[in-house]
Structures are given as C-alpha cells and as structure tokens.
Specification:
CATH superfamily of chain A: Response regulator
CATH architecture of the largest domain in chain B: 2-Layer Sandwich
Number of strands of chain B: 21
Number of domains of chain B: 5
Strand content of chain A: 15-25%
Shape of chain B: flat
CATH class of chain A: Alpha Beta
Structural class of chain B: alpha+beta
Number of domains of chain A: 1
Structural class of chain A: alpha/beta
Radius of gyration of chain B: 35 Å
Helix content of chain B: 40-55%
Strand content of chain B: 15-25%
Strand order of the largest sheet of chain B: 6-8-9-11-10
Largest sheet of chain A: 5 strands, parallel
Order of helices and strands of chain A: EHEHEHEHEH
Oligomer: heterodimer
CATH topology of chain A: Rossmann fold
Distance between the termini of chain A: 12 Å
Radius of gyration of chain A: 13 Å
Helix content of chain A: 40-55%
CATH topology of the largest domain in chain B: Heat Shock Protein 90
Amino acid sequence: MKKTILSVDDSASILQMVKLTLGGGGYDVVQASNGAEGLARARAGGIDMVLTDLNMPVMNGIAMIRELRKLPQCTGVPIIFLTTESAANMKQEAKAAGATGWITKPFQQDQLLGVVRKVLGA
Amino acid sequence: MSGSDPAQTYRQEAADLLEQLEQALLDLEHAPDDADLINTAFRALHTIKGSGAMFGFDAVAAFTHHVETAFDRVRKGEAAATPSLIAVVLAAKDQIRLLIDQPDSADEADAAALLNQLQAALAAPERAAAAPNSMVAWRLRFRLPRDAMAMGTNPLLLLDELRALGPCTVVADPSAIPPLQALDPTACHVAWEVTLLTAEPRSAIEQVFLFVLDEMQLDLEQITAEPSAPKPPPAPDRTEPARKPAHAEPASADTGSIRVPAARLDDLMDQVGELVIAQSRLKQIAGATSDAQVKTISEEIERLALELRDTTMGARLVPIGQLFGRFRRLVHDLSKELGKEVTLTLAGEETELDKTLIERLSDPLIHMIRNAVDHGIATPDQRAAAGKPRQGRVGLTARHLGHEVLISVTDDGNGLDRARIQQRAEEQGMLAPGTRLPDAELFRLIMEPGFSTAREVTSVSGRGVGMDVVRRAIEALRGSVDIASRPGEGSEFTLHLPLTLAIIDGLLVRVGAGRYVIPLSAIEECVELSAEDDTRSRGHTFLNIRGSLVPFLRLREVFASGTDPDTYQKVVIVSAGDQRVGLVVDQVIGDHQTVIKSLSKLHADVGAFSGATILGDGTVALILEVAHLVEHGQHRDESLPQAAE
C-alpha cells in the first residue's frame, strides 16, 4: 500500500518539487501551506509521515510539530523538517518539539528521497 | 667466473632476480605497502634491465624497462600495489623469463598486451583496492532514546540500513524490557549489539544514526584492524626470497592448491566431527535457556560448525576421474590379451566423492570391468556374426543422485544368461527348482557367495567371477549393487554409494533404555504398531503394510532389552537392495546427523552394528547395520513358511 506523506510549506515551488519527487518515489503526497493547515490535515488521520518547513505564517513548524506529537494518531509518525546549515539552534528546538529528523536546504531530489526512505522504509 | 660465457652468467643472475621478484610480489599481495618489498621488486627489475642491455638481451631490456617504469610509480607512492597490478607484473615476470630463455618463441603481441594490462592496472587503482579484503569488522552497541519510536524513529529500519552496509549479526538485548504491567509500549526498551563487516568508513555507520545520534548511546568499536595497517613480521619476508633463489622453477599454474597428507585430513574430519557433537550439546543447553544471547551464539556456532563440516568434507572429495583413468590401461591390456576389440568410454569423471571411497572402489571396479571385457563382450567374429559392430564398448559412468553417487559399468555384450543362472542357482540350492524370480532378483544371485567360484562355471554362466567379493566390498562402503541386463544387448552393473563414509544422516530411535541410529538412506517409512496389532502379531513375524507382507524384527528381543514395550511401538521399515524388513522400536526420537566412530577390534564381529556415535548429551548410540538386519529378518521369513507347512 502506498504511504501518505503530508508536505507542509508556505512556498508553492517547494511544495511542487516535493510532490514531484516523492510522487515519483512511489508515495502519495498531501499538501498544506502552513502549520495550522498541516495540523488540521494530520488530525484527519491517514498520514504516514510529515515533511515540514519551519518558517511559516499562521503557525510555524515548531509549534505544529509540538501539537502533532500530542495527537495519538501521530505517535510514531516520522516528522522531518527542512532547515539550513546556519540554523543550528532551530534544529535543537525542532528535535525537542518532537521531530524525527531533518533535511538541510538546499537539497537534491535524491537526497530528499533518501531521507524519506531512511525513516519510512522503501 | 672469468672463463664462462657472460651471457650464461646473466641468465643465471636473471633467474635468481626473477625468483626474488616473484617472492616479493607474492608477499606484496599480503602487505601492499611494505616499502622493503617494493624496493626489492624494483631493484630486481632494474638490474635485469640494466644487465640485459649490457649483455645483448635488448628485447629483455626494452620490455623490462616498461615494467620497471610502472613499478617505479609504486615505489614513489603514485600508484598502489593492487592485486591486479601484482598479477600483471607476475605475468610480465614470466614474459621476461621467456625472453631470456627462449627469445625466439616470445610473442611480440603478448608483450604488448601485457604492457596494456599494466597501464590499465595502474590507471584503476581504487577499484582494485576496494577488494573484499578491505572489509573491516565493527562492533556496535546502541540504545535508542526511550521516546525514539514515539518520535518516529523505526529501529528496524536502522538495522536494515546497517545490513545494507555489509553482512552483520544483530543481537537484541531485551534485559531492560519491564514486566508487562509496567510496559510502555511506545517506548524503546531494547538495546542492540551488532557485529558488522563492511568496507564503508566509520562515518557511514554513524550516518545511519544521524537523526538520533545526539540523544542515543552508541558504542562503536573496530574489532579488526584496517586491512593495510598490519604488516606481517618483516623478518621472514626478507629472508624468504634469499633462502631459495637457486631453484628457479617456472611459476606453475597450480599455486591455487596444496597437497596435504591424507592423515591430516582424516584428523581434521575427526575433530570437526567432535566439534559438531559438542555443538549439538551446546544447542541442547541453549534450547533450555531463555538467554537470547546464548541462543544466538549457539545458532551462530551451529551454522559455522555445519559449514566447517561441509567444507572439510569437500576437502576430502576427489574427482573420480583419477580412478577411471587407471582403467583405460586395464581395458586396453585385457582386450589385447583376450583377442577382443573393446573401447572404454568414460563419463562423469568430474563427479567427486570421498577419497577413502575412491581408494576402496578400485578393486571392485577392476573386477567388474574385467568381467565385462572377459565375459560380457564376445570376440569380434562372434559379434560380427550377431550383427553387432566388431568393436565392443564398455562404459564407465559416475553421477550424483541425491546423497548417492552412482557408478555404472555397462557393456554392449551378450547380457546375462538367465537360464544358466537359474540352473546354477538351483544346483547350488539357492533356489527351489522351478521358482520364477524377477530379473533383478535372479541376477542378484550371481553375487551370492558360492554362486560361482570356479573358472569353468563362470564361462558357462556368463558372468560372475567373484561378484560376491564385489558385493561385500560395496556393502562395506554402505553401498549396494544393482544389475540390469538384456539378452543380446548388454548388461549394466550399477553401484550405489554414499557420498562420504564419515558422516551419515540417521534416525535416532529408542529400544528399551538404549538408543540406536538407523541410517536414513535405508529407511522407507515408519508406521505405528498398536498394542492390539502387537498382540495379534505375536508368533508371526510378518506385518501387513498396505497389503504387502513385510517380515519384521522386534529389536527389543534381538537386543534382549529387559523393559516392557511402550504402548505404541513404532515399526521402521528399512530396505537393503529390494528386500524390506520392519524394525520394531519403542520410540522414534528424530533425525540425527551422525559422525561415525568405528567400533573397537573387540566388537568388530558384531554384525548388527556398523559403528557408534556420540549423542548431544554425551551418551553413545550404536549405529545399526541395516543390511545385516535385513538378512537376519529375511532368514526368519524363510524359516517361517517351512514351519507353517
């Protein structure tokens, strides 16, 4: 069965690139453009993994991760966030909020697939 | 030296140098960074080139120059002494020798090809360096943060990633798992110990744990050294080439094999046998414990012990071709002697079997081939009169069939003479007059002792000098002989042999308090003997197995075990040849791989047992000699109808 990945980002181009890459890798991708939307989508269930940006309007990524981890349906669901080399403290904060791992921007498509496979299996 | 030909001196010197070069190269395979060895090799090449030019060996000098140049790069550290480079330089060394010894037969194209290979080997150093010997063993002990699973880390995927790096063994340490009532199912309680064999660097292993590295406990240690780091003790390496420079034998192609005294292989087999026994004891203990680590180690040792056993058995296997080869001469001489024209065709010479078996097969096969040529195949004139080609054919084939090796001796001669065999068997009292037997059974009579001993009898009966000797020899090897024959078309004698003598698969059974092993190859089936059947069959020695009567032996009576029989006894139906006998036992315990220990001289006459084995718990079980028991059972079977009359 195809696994479903929730992709949360305020940048339409990133969302598109993620959908293209992960869709090509055999995953279903659902999208949200900020933390609040993402949280709402995750509450609906059926999400196997969350891939999220940290800097977003309405509700930022870290707040969303913290809320996601309170949801019973998100226990054990890998949450991967996008970060940059310079934002080391953000990484700590996101991990503390309950994230599973991260991808450092900028990244190549195969790097993204590699990380998803790493936490989700092939 | 002054009076001798300088060219001859150079040849001698070059031979010594080439020998040194070869030794250095071979040692370099194990220590590719050893500067001394590299220098030795380089100096040898350098001197061969330099002196060669002086004494008029221009071709040698020119060719060696290229090799020297290549090796100079290794000396300067610009290229590595990879296995492929060493292989090419070894080949180049042979070419140099050829150029010195037989310059006329040296091929220009060969030299050019070698130089090309040399360039290729220099150009691709990394690929060659990543050979399997650069594998490093690591031991990882790790414990994930308690909430790792809740936070989306799947430990199984991490283990999969480790496995992707190379072969590894994973042992889970469940000791921290709390009792069920205190268990938080979302928390990760298990720790792991992993032994990993990989060519990847430490960072690749750490990369696996990237997302949890900061929070987890990871203890990562390398348990074997980097492949290039250790150098063999330098002293022997340096003395080795100096010690035997004079005997410059050509590099032979069979460096891949060594000769080992047979006794050492036997010892090894014995020790492996003991190891397998010790291992099965360990397995019993491991089965009784709940300690996961002991279980894992036990399984590991089981796997290794069995692999070791197979490898050792494999080392004892020799192709039967070397035995077959001897028979060409035999057939040639025999047919000359007897005035016949016979060709021997061989097939399956590559079939491997235990060397002890091969040695002990020689005599029986000589017998059978002699019979085929002597009695099976007629003279050319007789053959021509019968419309056959004047030249007779004797075939010798070997092949594997399951756990058996089949060796057939075929001929396209007259075939066995049914009527004569019948007549002879009746004369000898082996057969009641007028009894009709199926072909196979009738033919088997020629292997009965006393069937034919005298020469003139054999020439009448067509076959059979000493076939009883053949049968006895083959049965002693736990084999059997089948005979097929068609009048006027020929005969086929087939030997069925076990692959090896040292180990058998057996069925472990209990009779009274004693345990016995029945060779699995002889077993046809096991059936139950209920108490009613047992009582009903008292006084009889037959059992009705799906409509056919099978004589049986109560082993508890045969072995005089004083205990009461179990309520449900089992009957193990065994066969030798196509005769069947049921053996009544108290319990069938299970299959058991058995290393055969021969009985002492004192017990060698006890026909019912072919040997003994040590069981997992250290007790001894005797191995039943099925052929003997079948004979025993069949005799009772014969005596019974007479008693009933």
